[in-house]
C-alpha cells in the first residue's frame, strides 16, 4: 500500500477525449479531476489579453507565476485562439516549471478530501505523475478529432470552419510532440485508448474497466 490515494494520468493529442474520460472517471470513482490544459490555456489567454506575445518567455512566465484558480473558469479558454496560445506558452520551460508544483500537489492532496485524483494533459504520465496507478494515452484520427471539436465549438456559437479546426489541431500536435520541454509522448507503461471507432459511452466503459484493474492491482 502506498500512502497517497490513487492517481490516474490521462494524456493524448488535442480533442482526443481526455477531458470527457477524465471527468467520467472522476464522477464514477469519486475522485477529483484536473484538466491541466485549462492551466496552459489560462496562461496563453492572459498573455494575449495583456497584448503580449505568447512566445515571449518573460511575459509568459510572469503570467504563469501570477495564475489564480479563478482564471480557469473563463469560457474564452475553450476557443481555438486560447488553445493555440496555450501550445506556444507550453513550450517555454519556465512556464512548465512554474505550473508543476500546483499539478503535483493536486495529485498528492486532491481537493475536497477526494480519495483519488484524475489529471489529464500531455505530460501527466511522463513528468507530472510518473508513478501514477494507471496511465492512459487517449487518441483518435485527426479528422475525427477535428469533427468532434468543430461540433463542440459550433454548439458554443464559434463560427470556425472544420478545416481551420483540423489545421489548428495538426499544428498544435506537431508543436506539442516536437518541443524539448516535456514533449507529448506516450509513456512506455501507458495503455493506448484509440477512440476513433468508439462512442463516448464505450470509451468511458473501457477506461472504467482499466481503472478497476489498476485499483485492484494496487491492493
Ligand atoms: N468517443 C467519442 N465519441 C464522440 N465524441 C467524443 C468522444 N470523446 C470525446 N468526444 C467529444 O469530442 C470533443 C473533444 O473531447 P474532449 O474530452 O474535450 O477532448 P480533450 O480533453 O482531449 O481535448 C468533445 O466535444 C467531446 O464531447
Ligand atoms: N499537461 C499539459 C496540458 C496541456 N498542454 C498544452 O496546452 C494546450 C491546450 O491543452 P488542452 O488539453 O486544453 O487541449 P485540447 O486537447 O482540449 O484541445 C496543448 O496543446 C498543450 O500545448 C501541455 O503542454 N501540457
From TrEMBL:
<keyword id="KW-0547">Nucleotide-binding</keyword>
<protein>
    <recommendedName>
        <fullName>Cytidylate kinase</fullName>
        <ecNumber>2.7.4.25</ecNumber>
    </recommendedName>
</protein>
<dbReference type="InterPro" id="IPR003136">
    <property type="entry name" value="Cytidylate_kin"/>
</dbReference>
<feature type="domain" description="Cytidylate kinase">
    <location>
        <begin position="8"/>
        <end position="211"/>
    </location>
</feature>
<dbReference type="GO" id="GO:0006220">
    <property type="term" value="P:pyrimidine nucleotide metabolic process"/>
</dbReference>
<keyword id="KW-0808">Transferase</keyword>
<dbReference type="GO" id="GO:0036431">
    <property type="term" value="F:dCMP kinase activity"/>
</dbReference>
<dbReference type="GO" id="GO:0005737">
    <property type="term" value="C:cytoplasm"/>
</dbReference>
<dbReference type="InterPro" id="IPR011994">
    <property type="entry name" value="Cytidylate_kinase_dom"/>
</dbReference>
<keyword id="KW-0067">ATP-binding</keyword>
<feature type="binding site">
    <location>
        <begin position="12"/>
        <end position="20"/>
    </location>
    <ligand>
        <name>ATP</name>
    </ligand>
</feature>
<keyword id="KW-0418">Kinase</keyword>
<comment type="similarity">
    <text>Belongs to the cytidylate kinase family. Type 1 subfamily.</text>
</comment>
<dbReference type="GO" id="GO:0005524">
    <property type="term" value="F:ATP binding"/>
</dbReference>
<dbReference type="InterPro" id="IPR027417">
    <property type="entry name" value="P-loop_NTPase"/>
</dbReference>
<dbReference type="Pfam" id="PF02224">
    <property type="entry name" value="Cytidylate_kin"/>
</dbReference>
<keyword id="KW-0963">Cytoplasm</keyword>
Amino acid at each position: 500500500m502506498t500512502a497517497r490515494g490513487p492517481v490516474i494520468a490521462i494524456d493524448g493529442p488535442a480533442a482526443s477525449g481526455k477531458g470527457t474520460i477524465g471527468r467520467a472517471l472522476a464522477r464514477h470513482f469519486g475522485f477529483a479531476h484536473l484538466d491541466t490544459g485549462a492551466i496552459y490555456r489560462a496562461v496563453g489567454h492572459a498573455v494575449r489579453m495583456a497584448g503580449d506575445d505568447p512566445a515571449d518567455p518573460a511575459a509568459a512566465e510572469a503570467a504563469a507565476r501570477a495564475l489564480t484558480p479563478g482564471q480557469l473558469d473563463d469560457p474564452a479558454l475553450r476557443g481555438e485562439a486560447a488553445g493555440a496560445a496555450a501550445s506556444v506558452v507550453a513550450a517555454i520551460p519556465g512556464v512548465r516549471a512554474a505550473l508543476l508544483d500546483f499539478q503535483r500537489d493536486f495529485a498528492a492532496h486532491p481537493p475536497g478530501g477526494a480519495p483519488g485524483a484524475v489529471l489529464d494533459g500531455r505530460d501527466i504520465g511522463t513528468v507530472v505523475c510518473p508513478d501514477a496507478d494507471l496511465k492512459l494515452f487517449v487518441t483518435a484520427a485527426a479528422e475525427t478529432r477535428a469533427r468532434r471539436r468543430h461540433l463542440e465549438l459550433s454548439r458554443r456559437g464559434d463560427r470556425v470552419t472544420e478545416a481551420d479546426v483540423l489545421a489548428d489541431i495538426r499544428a498544435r500536435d506537431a508543436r506539442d510532440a516536437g518541443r524539448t520541454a516535456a514533449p507529448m509522448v506516450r509513456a512506455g507503461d501507458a495503455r493506448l485508448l484509440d477512440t476513433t471507432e468508439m462512442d463516448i459511452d464505450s470509451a468511458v466503459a473501457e477506461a472504467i474497466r482499466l481503472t478497476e484493474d489498476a485499483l485492484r492491482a494496487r491492493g
